[in-house]
Amino acid sequence: MKHFLKETDFGRSELEALFQQARELKATRGRHARPLEGQTWALLFSKSSTRTRVSFEVGIHELGGNPLFLNRNDIQLGRGESVEDTAKVLSRFVHGLIVRTFDHSEVERLAAAGNIPVINALTDFLHPCQIYTDAFTMTERWAKNDDLVGSLRGRKIAFLGDTACNMANSWILGANLFGMKISLSGPAEFAPGAELKAQLQRE
C-alpha cells in the first residue's frame, strides 16, 4: 500500500514510469484498462473545489471505480469522532481515500490509522497532485523522446508571490525531486517557513 501525501512519496526511480502511465492513459482515454473496477474511493473534502473535485471524480469513474464524495458536514469527523476513528471506519468500507483539508497533519493521521491508500488533494502545507500535473504538462511541451522526466532536469522555474504558501512549498519539493532549479521572489515576511525547511532536511 502506498500513500501520496507529499511530492517525495515517489522516488526519482519511480517518476518515469508514473509519467509514462499518465501519458498512456491520456492518449487512450475511454479505451484504457479499468484497474479500479469494483472499487469505491471516498473523497473527503473539508475545502470546496472545482477542478480538483471534478478531476478526481471523473478519473475514478473512468478507471472503473465509484467515487463517493463526502464533505465535512456529511460525516461525524470533529463531531464526536476523531481522525483516527474516521480512518478506521472508512477503511472498512472503501478502497482508498482522497483528502482535501486544512491541516497537513490530518492526512498524515488518516494514513497512519487506516489501512487504505490516502492521497493528498491539498492541504494548507502542500498540493502534490497539482505539482505533478504541472510537471507532466511541461514534459508534454519539452520532451523530444520517451525520457519524460529527463526533459525537466536542469530547467529553471520562477515562483512569484507568497513563497510560504502550499503551492510554493510543493514546487520547492517538486523542483528538487525533478532535478529542476527554482527561484523564489516575494516579500520577506512570506518566505518559506520552518515546516518546509524541516521537510527538506528529512529528504
Describe the structure in brief:
The chain has 203 residues and is α/β, with parallel strands linked by helices. The protein has seven helices and six strands.
What keywords describe this structure?
7 helices, 6 strands, single chain, 4-stranded parallel sheet, alpha/beta, 203 residues, two-stranded parallel ribbon
Provide a descriptive summary of the structure in words:
The chain has 203 residues and is α/β, with parallel strands linked by helices. The protein contains seven helices and six strands. The chain has helices at 12-27, 51-62, 83-91, 104-113, 128-142, 166-178, 194-202; strands at 40-45, 66-71, 96-100, 118-120, 156-160, 181-185. A four-stranded parallel β-sheet has the order 2-1-3-4, sandwiched between helices. A two-stranded parallel ribbon has the order 5-6.
C-alpha Rg (nearest Å)? 18 Å
Number of strands: 6
Largest sheet: 4 strands, parallel
| Head-to-tail CA distance between termini | 20 Å
- Strand arrangement within the widest β-sheet reads 2-1-3-4
Helix content: 40-55%
Low-confidence stretches: none
The total count of helices amounts to 7
Query: Could you spell the SSE succession in H and E letters?
Result: HEHEHEHEHEHEH
By secondary-structure content and strand pairing, the structural class works out as alpha/beta
Strand content: 5-15%
Inertia-based shape? globular
Average pLDDT works out at 95
Give a topology summary.
Layout (H helix, E strand, L loop, with lengths): L11 H16 L12 E6 L5 H12 L3 E6 L11 H9 L4 E5 L3 H10 L4 E3 L7 H15 L13 E5 L5 H13 L2 E5 L8 H9 L1
Parallel strand pairs: 1-2, 1-3, 3-4, 5-6
